[in-house]
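User: Hi! I'm working on a homework problem where we have to compare a predicted structure to a textbook description. Could you give me the structure for the chain below?
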Amino acid sequence: MKNATWIKGAPLALAAAALLAACGGGGGGAGSDGGSDALAGAQGRNLRADQNHGAEVREIATDLTQRGVGLDRSRLAHLVEVAQSKRPAAGAAAAAMVSLTYNGPASWFRRVLSTSATQSVPDRDGWIRTWDRRERMTFGQHATWSFGSEPARQSDVHWNGNAWVRCALNHEIASTPVDADGANQYNYCDGYELGTGQRSFLGIEGRTMLEVYQAMRSAGATNVFIANTSVLGSAVFPAGSMLVAQTNTATQTAVAYYPGIGNAVRDPIPALAAADPATCLSIGPNTPLRDYTTFSTSLEGMVATHRGIPCVFTPTALTGPRNEWWTQATVPIGFLPSNLPPGPYYTGGTMLRASFPGGNAITFHACQHRLDGSTRNCNPIGSGTFSIETLGDARAMRLGTLPPQIAALAWVPLFVERAGKVWVAYQNKPVATSTARLNLPALNALATQLGLPAVDPAVPLATTPASFQGQWVLGVAGTLDAQDTMTLSIFPTPQGLGASCIEDKSNTSLDCSTFGSFDADGNFTLLTRNDHIVGRFLFVEGTASGTLFPPPGSTAPIEPMEGVRR
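Assistant: Happy to help. Predicted structure tokens:
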């Protein structure tokens, strides 16, 4: 197994830079067969968890560059429809490039749906099977996964109507064969999204890659972007190359949530929930989160403690006329970023939040977003009521009468009580998605031209060391909720995978400058001033386990370790 290269003492700021260089998000959109992405646009990802009240506000939206965007097929009228006899058939391997963002050989994202020769033969129920392959190169570090907009979202959990399930690596999308009119049905990842597809096959063999790319962009195909088209040169597509113009219409989507510990709601202590002035003043930037909040264990507990009563402080020249802290008084709904540069104190983005004034009433808020992620100076933007339903071993809260700012989001916000915590949840809105895709011969020819890996539909996707990038909360087994933990951040850099560590209870840095191995299966060793950790990350589950060894000369005991994605 190939080990990753660790960068000693890499600064935490590189983690944010790596995320910003992630080549256009996760490349969402539905596959032939569905699969809209849930984006994780966390606020303050590399800051303390309490800035979003323990529920790291993950903007669970779909990739709007690909969802609900029309494709002007008249712009492709010069391409000839491929005869039915030359289209993919049962027993033949096939693939389609759903997304590509190419900024250069060290910075790109690609999503491909592939069907092996075996998968292309309908089963006894008439379904063929497809793998979802997602790859991202950031600073030359290659990450792979098969669900969501980033590797961490592989562990999202959704309700399929009978059980809460995850999308495994190489989960199979079920779809019916395309009929003579180009229509089919799909079931993406066991009920995450159901829908119908409509496609046409256009011949592009012998045409230059530049010509085809320009035609795709002219037709509105924003799912493919090449920053510098000179890299295409005069290359032409080989025999058998096709452009697939496809529209998928989602008809049903699932309730889902990200099970990272940063997405769990935290309840303020009673004095803070009431905005007691002395309690408000006692909480500083380095006050341990566990001193004034606990994980919410029920929807009722969340409702009882988030009453919309802020801590009010004296305004300053930086804060403006108001200086109110609302993080602990509200729960997260979403985030609307600003197109303007951030100011000296606020980002300019709008945090959408909710509070519960009593009974089953809800007040919705629009709030300022401080540079460190804190929720400030909220204004009411609407009111409604909530209802609670049972979904298997979980309870889901639905929010009614959403104000326009929230109703316009690409997903429906919810809260799910499950496994002893309350999670910020989402349900993507069913929409139509139009894309222009390249088939297997065409996408592999383009891959050769751009220097990307070729796609072999017979070979399943495998994780790489960079697949485990993100934030992991590690601690002695059984103590994660007490926050006596360390947050390990793993991120790509030009020199390899970098890492930084923070002691969560004090919000101070730990020396992570000495590393052992880290491989494509998630096995790792890590040395800090306090511990020598030998463990393994589980990619799909988003958890970790292993052993904590004391540093040399210490009399501390050897203890079991556990961890979870933040």
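For your comparison, note the following. Residues 162 and 290 are 35 Å apart (CA to CA). The two ends are 26 Å apart (CA to CA). Good luck with the assignment!
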